């Protein structure tokens, strides 16, 4: 009798934008204390896992060339962690279809790590519960727990301690993808340098922003978006100032640098406005390429095939 070959598992994981990113002081462990309100966006990566003779990683799509395919890739580390827990060898071929810009401040690597955890739990039938997955996620990176959970959430600690945030309606975004990336540690370091020289203004509490999310009104939300890392990202990539100006000139309600950048995220009044802003921004020559997206969307989840929407 033929033994059944387990089918590959495909998991889709979202990108994120930080609607509010308040950065506190540098801790002894090298991380900064944060308050981050995350929203998961429809721009996504798909991660496929299948049984194989050895662990391997392949990457296609958005800037695939610059993504490592060895132990430096977070999906490799996720596979080793889960295999150790399951007491088995990580013999699995992992294939990543990237839609999320690499080193773009949109948590692409974290999305892939979260997707790999969910996919391998399914492939290897480990039956992990939410708490187990959260713990593995936090070991892989500060943003990975949010990539698992998705939706809209507030993160504290180094960003990994999450609580859901009530958010009504969908919000519509235009994303301006930059030429080249920014390394997250460099951006935090630049913020520390700017703070040692003077005091770039620090964000206050997120209460008003949370209220605007609960109401679901993009006009109310727009002026409340804020990111303490933005001055540092602009200091390292001054050309982003032009991108931000061009987005609001094109009709966006507001524009911010996404997380550690250099992607700029523009909040728009509705889906039609996002298409119009995207078209104008694409013609303005202020970024590498433009995408539209909406949020919130779910966290990493198994899908039947990559054509699923
Ligand atoms: C800034 C944020 C905002 O959501 O994401 P990105 O915009 O890069 O996607 C996150 O805090 C990034 O999360 P993630 O990319 O998972 O970072 P990690 O791998 O945990 O940390 C990479 C490095 O960033 C710095 N780091 C990260 C998180 C934190 N709270 N304080 C820090 O100082 C540290 O130098 C750390 O060594
Ligand atoms: N699966 C992955 N996808 C993208 N980058 C990855 C991945 N695994 C590890 N990396 C490394 O992480 C760095 C940060 O990538 P990414 O997560 O896309 O950006 P950000 O931290 O700005 O959101 C990349 O430059 C790359 O070297």
UniProtKB/TrEMBL annotation:
Taxonomic placement: Bacteria, Bacillati, Actinomycetota, Actinomycetes, Mycobacteriales
Record flagged with keyword Kinase: yes
Positions of ATP binding: 101-111
HAMAP family, sorted: IspE
Protein name according to UniProt: 4-diphosphocytidyl-2-C-methyl-D-erythritol kinase
PANTHER family: 4-DIPHOSPHOCYTIDYL-2-C-METHYL-D-ERYTHRITOL KINASE, CHLOROPLASTIC (PTHR43527)
Stretches assigned to the GHMP kinase C-terminal domain: 209-282
Domain of life where this protein originates: Bacteria
Source species of the chain: Rhodococcus daqingensis
GO molecular function terms attached to this record: 4-(cytidine 5'-diphospho)-2-C-methyl-D-erythritol kinase activity
Annotated catalysed reactions: 4-CDP-2-C-methyl-D-erythritol + ATP = 4-CDP-2-C-methyl-D-erythritol 2-phosphate + ADP + H(+)
Keywords recorded for this protein, A-Z: ATP-binding, Isoprene biosynthesis, Kinase, Nucleotide-binding, Transferase
Family assignment from sequence similarity: Belongs to the GHMP kinase family. IspE subfamily.
Recorded name of the encoding gene: ispE
Task of the protein: Catalyzes the phosphorylation of the position 2 hydroxy group of 4-diphosphocytidyl-2C-methyl-D-erythritol.
EC number: 2.7.1.148
Residues at the active site: 16, 143
InterPro entries assigned: GHMP_kinase_C_dom (IPR013750), GHMP_kinase_C_sf (IPR036554), GHMP_kinase_N_dom (IPR006204), IspE (IPR004424), Ribosomal_Su5_D2-typ_SF (IPR020568), Ribsml_uS5_D2-typ_fold_subgr (IPR014721)
